[in-house]
Structure to design on (324 residues):
C-alpha cells in the first residue's frame, strides 16, 4: 500500500489494551487514567479481523503493544490467532518485560517471532522511581527468557531522560557487549505526560557522535531495519547500539506504519490527533471490504511529517493509549 507521498505502508502497531501494571513518569499520570470500559475495547476477534484486513492490504509486520500487552487477558490466544494469518511475515510485541518470565514460553509457542523490551535504567531504585513501583529484576529475568527462547533480535528500548539515566549509558553499552541485545536509545517525545517533561529531553545527535568515537561504533545492517533506528555494531560486543531521534531526526520520509488504538481508531500519525474510526465500522457489521476502505482512508490521510521538534502535540491521548 502506497500513501500519497509514495511511502510503502507495510507495518501495523496494534494496541491491545490501555491498561498497564506500571506508571512510567513520562507515559502515564500517577493517579492513572480513566480507562476505557471493557466494551469499548476491541475484542480478540475484532483484533483478528482488523489484522486480516490489514494483511490483505499489504501489511507484512504487526506489532502488539499497549498499555502493557501482557496484561491483556487472552494475549497468548491473540498471538496464535494473528500468527495464523497467511501473508503476515512477522509478529512482534513491545513490552515492559515484567511478565515475560511467566508468559514468554507460551507466547513463543503461540508463534510470536520477536520482542522489544523497554528498560530505562539498570538500577533497582531508579527503576522503581521511573516506573512508580516496578521491579527491575523482573525485567532482567524477562530479557534472559526472551534470549533463551530465541525471540530475536531482542531489542531494548531505553528512553533517555536528562539528569535521570544519561549517567547509565556506559552500563547499557556493557549490556550489549555481554549479551546479543540491541540497545536503542530513544528521545523523549512530547506526547501525553512526556509533554510535561521537556526539561528531561536530551537530543541524541551529540550523544551518538560521542559514542561512535568512544566505542568505535560501526554502521550496521546486522539488525533488520524496521524503521527509525540508526543502528551500530559494537566492536567486540554481542549486541548493537542504536539511536532513535524521534524528535530531532525526522524519519517521517520513510514512515511505513499505521497505529490502531485499543478502542479501535486508526492513527495515521503518532503526532496528530486525527483518527479514523474502525470500531464503529466493525460493530456496524462491516465486511472485510469495509475495513479495507477504512484503512485506505487512513493511509491517504498520512501527513508528510510531524512537528514534535516544536515540542507541540496536537492531541489529548497518552502514549499508553497509543502504544508508542
Ligand atoms: N508497555 C509497553 C512498554 O513499555 O514497552 C508497551 C507500550 S509503551 C507506550 C511503548 C514504548 O513507548 C515504550 O518503549 C516507552 O518507553 C515509550 N514511551 C512512552 N512514553 C514516551 C514518551 N513520552 N517519549 C518517548 N517514548 C515513550
Ligand atoms: Fe506502561 Fe509502557 Fe507506559 Fe511504562 S511505557 S507506563 S510500561 S505503557
Amino acid at each position: 500500500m502506497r500513501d500519497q507521498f509514495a511511502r510503502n505502508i507495510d507495518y501495523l502497531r496494534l494496541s491491545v489494551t490501555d491498561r498497564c501494571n506500571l506508571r512510567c513518569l513520562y507515559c502515564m499520570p500517577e493517579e492513572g487514567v480513566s480507562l476505557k470500559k471493557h466494551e469499548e475495547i476491541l475484542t480478540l476477534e475484532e483484533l483478528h479481523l482488523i489484522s486480516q484486513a490489514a494483511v490483505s492490504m499489504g501489511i507484512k509486520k504487526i506489532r502488539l503493544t499497549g498499555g502493557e500487552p501482557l496484561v491483556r487477558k487472552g494475549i497468548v490466544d491473540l498471538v496464535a490467532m494473528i500468527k495464523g494469518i497467511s501473508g503476515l511475515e512477522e509478529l512482534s510485541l513491545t513490552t515492559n518485560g515484567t511478565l515475560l518470565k511467566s508468559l514468554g514460553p507460551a507466547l513463543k509457542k503461540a508463534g510470536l517471532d520477536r520482542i522489544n523490551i523497554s528498560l530505562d535504567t539498570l538500577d533497582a531504585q531508579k527503576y522503581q522511581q521511573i516506573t512508580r513501583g516496578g521491579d527491575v529484576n523482573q525485567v532482567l529475568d524477562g530479557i534472559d527468557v526472551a534470549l533463551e527462547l530465541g525471540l530475536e533480535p531482542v531489542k531494548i528500548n531505553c528512553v533517555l531522560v536528562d539528569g535521570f539515566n544519561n549517567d547509565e549509558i556506559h552500563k547499557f553499552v556493557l549490556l550489549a557487549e555481554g549479551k546479543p541485545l540491541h540497545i536503542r536509545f530513544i528521545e523523549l517525545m512530547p506526547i501525553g505526560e512526556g509533554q510535561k517533561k521537556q526539561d528531561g529531553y536530551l537530543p541524541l545527535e551529540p550523544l551518538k557522535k560521542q559514542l561512535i568515537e568512544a566505542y568505535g561504533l560501526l554502521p550496521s545492517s546486522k539488525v533488520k531495519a524496521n524503521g527509525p533506528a540508526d543502528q551500530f555494531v559494537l566492536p567486540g560486543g554481542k549486541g548493537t547500539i542504536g539511536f532513535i531521534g524521534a524528535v530531532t531526526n525526522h524519519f517521517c520520509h520513510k514512515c511505513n506504519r499505521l497505529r490502531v488504538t485499543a478502542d479501535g481508531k486508526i492513527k495515521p500519525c503518532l503526532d496528530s490527533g486525527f483518527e479514523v474510526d474502525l470500531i464503529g465500522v466493525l460493530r456496524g457489521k462491516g465486511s472485510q471490504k469495509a475495513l479495507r476502505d477504512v484503512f485506505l482512508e487512513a493511509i491517504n490521510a498520512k501527513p508528510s511529517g510531524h512537528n514534535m521538534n516544536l515540542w507541540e502535540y496536537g492531541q489529548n491521548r497518552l502514549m499508553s493509549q497509543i502504544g508508542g
Summary: Residues 11-322 form a domain with the TIM Barrel fold (CATH 3.20.20.70). The longest strand covers residues 154-160. The pocket of S-adenosylmethionine (ligand 1) is lined by residues 20, 26-27, 65-68, 94-96, 118, 157, 159, 186, 188-189, 191, 194, 319-320, 323-324 (CB under 6 Å). The chain has a mean pLDDT of 93.
